[in-house]
Design a protein that fits this description.
CATH class: Mainly Alpha
Structural class: mainly alpha
Number of helices: 12
Order of helices and strands: HHHHHHHHHHHH
Shape: globular
Mean pLDDT: 92
CATH superfamily: Ribonucleotide Reductase, subunit A
Helix content: over 70%
CATH topology: Ribonucleotide Reductase, subunit A
Low-confidence stretches: none
Radius of gyration: 20 Å
Strand content: under 5%
Distance between the termini: 60 Å
Largest sheet: none
């Protein structure tokens, strides 16, 4: 099935899911969540002091990565329009999605600046570098099947990262902000997940091949951030987002349980092989995630002994 035919076949579903999204989303205002009264001017001659807002380094890393990921919105909008369509329900969705995602970067940045939780100079340099670079994806993402498979996993991963970060913030306003953002991300995930489900019904072999590629090559959109490997290691060590989370909370519930790839029928021989590889890959990631989590627990026990 050609991309245009697939999009036409999914048009009614996109309209229905957009209507569902608009009925479920709740209006909220970033300016009402930011504690403006605690802020003050920044003196360019005075270096940022992390002790003004004590926070574990891993949580700072998560906030840094999460915000810079949201900041790269122009490139994501461009990519989504290229993968789907700028017209009718798909276009209306991408514009609505963009407006909601921009709200996330506004509220997180405002809170970080008011509380001085992150070095503002490092953050701005990171933003410039990230947006100037664009979006780095580890594998191929061509056409709507690839796009639906990837963004479904990515939106859920982003929701989990935001929510887990918020739980580790020792500040009621910061925790509430991350919870609000995570709620939005969950609705975005539901739209893409169910669009992918509809696409599986229409083009099972094409979607199975796309799911297989995206599961194998999945990377968070923050991969191109400066010093991302260091931040990612800290985030994983804190249990915010690691292989175990990726396996237990994303791959198993979405790919295996919701999309039910093991039960798909009528697949081409190539898609059948891709399914087998994907199921084995998910199982392997689960084993790796458990070993890494157990190792962290052992090291933590040794550190406190």
């Amino acid at each position: 099935m050609h991309d245009r035919e697939l999009l036409e076949a999914l048009s009614a579903t996109a309209t229905s899911l957009l209507d569902r999204h608009l009925s479920m989303t709740k209006e909220w205002f970033p300016h009402e969540l930011v504690p403006w009264g605690t802020g003050r001017d920044f003196d360019p001659e005075v270096a940022w002091d992390p002790m003004e807002f004590p926070m574990p380094a891993a949580v700072r890393s998560a906030l840094f990565v999460n915000l810079l990921t949201e900041d790269n919105l122009p490139y994501y909008f461009h990519s989504i329009c290229g993968l789907f369509s700028e017209h009718e329900a798909f276009g209306a969705w991408s514009r609505r999605w963009t407006a909601e995602e921009h709200r996330h970067s506004i509220v997180i940045r405002d809170w970080l600046m008011v509380t001085r939780a992150i070095d503002p100079v490092e953050l701005e340099r990171g933003r410039m570098a990230q947006v100037s670079t664009g979006f780095t994806h580890g594998g191929r993402m061509e056409g709507p099947c690839e796009g639906l498979a990837y963004v479904s996993l990515q939106e859920l991963a982003t929701r989990i990262s935001h929510r887990n970060t918020g739980r580790l913030i020792d500040d009621p306003r910061g925790a509430e902000i991350m919870s609000r953002v995570a709620n939005d991300e969950n609705l975005h995930f539901l739209f893409y997940r169910d669009m992918a489900s509809a696409a599986i019904e229409v083009a099972p072999s094409e979607m199975m091949l796309a799911i297989a590629r995206q599961v194998k090559t999945f990377e968070m959109p923050g991969t191109g951030i400066t010093n991302f490997a260091t931040h990612a290691a800290a985030i994983a060590n804190a249990g915010i987002y690691d292989f175990a989370v990726h396996h237990d909370q994303i791959l198993v519930p979405v790919v295996l349980r919701h999309w039910r790839i093991e039960a798909l029928e009528g697949l081409s021989p190539e898609a059948e092989q891709a399914r087998d590889r994907t199921v084995k890959h998910i199982a392997r990631l689960g084993r790796v995630g458990r070993r890494m989590a157990e190792r962290r627990e052992e090291l933590g026990a040794l550190a406190t002994a």
